[in-house]
Design goal:
Elements: H1 3-11, E1 13-17, H2 20-23, H3 27-39, H4 58-66, E2 71-77, E3 83-91, E4 119-127, H5 136-150, E5 156-162, H6 166-175, E6 178-185, E7 198-205
Parallel strand pairs: 4-5
Antiparallel strand pairs: 1-2, 2-3, 3-4, 5-7, 6-7
């Protein structure tokens, strides 16, 4: 796809907040897209070689749609109304604490002083593998960051990336995220397929 075609494709993507009444019809498609992005080898962002089981169930999708704290944004093709991807904005003060990463005595000198009430976690970031390489993921993240800043009043965005996914961490860095050397453990080691699966923490000022 040429640069001009990519710009046109990105311009055709509409990102909006999910509505539980309007978007309940999309439960099956959200379920398919999220699990295709995370749990199949169809998309370059997948984790299937690292994590077992579905990323989210259909019941989980319904819960996310009704969640009034952790807000879901959806991306659509503005011309066809086809669902393209998802991103969830999780206020840090309600985000679970995964504990300290202590493997091999790991320690970081970085200390985050930003109050949690000013931070937003980005999660459930997925793009239909059939629609990737159109700039949809970048637009989803940028629109999520804008919403978090302008509507939710957040001053810092945080994303957890599996340590083994270095190419994904580099993608976030190109957007503006920074790696300060922080790590956190994966919360459910029973679901991992390898030893020492953990997260790299990336942060970005808004």
């Amino acid at each position: 796809m040429s640069a001009s075609d990519t710009k046109k494709a990105v311009a055709a993507v509409l990102v909006r907040r999910a509505d539980p009444e309007q978007d309940m019809q999309h439960v099956d498609e959200i379920h398919r897209i999220v699990n295709a992005a995370y749990r199949s080898d169809a998309g370059w962002t997948h984790e299937t070689h690292l994590i077992k089981e579905e990323r989210i169930t259909k019941e989980g999708v319904k819960d996310v749609l009704h969640d009034k704290v952790n807000l879901l944004l959806l991306a659509f093709d503005s011309e066809t109304n086809q669902l393209l991807g998802t991103i969830q904005l999780d206020p840090a003060e309600f985000y679970p604490d995964f504990g300290e990463y202590e493997k091999d005595g790991h320690a970081t000198s970085y200390l985050e002083t930003m109050p949690k009430e000013n931070q937003i976690f980005l999660g459930l970031i997925s793009v239909d593998p059939l629609q990737q390489s159109r700039g949809i993921g970048g637009k989803l993240v940028r629109e999520g960051l804008r919403y978090a800043k302008e509507t939710m009043g957040r001053k810092q965005a945080v994303v957890y990336v599996l340590f083994q996914r270095t190419e994904l961490a580099e993608w976030y860095k190109r957007i503006g995220f920074v790696d300060y050397g922080e790590k956190v453990p994966y919360p459910d080691q029973a679901r991992t397929k390898q030893e020492d699966v953990h997260f790299t923490v990336l942060r970005m000022a808004l």
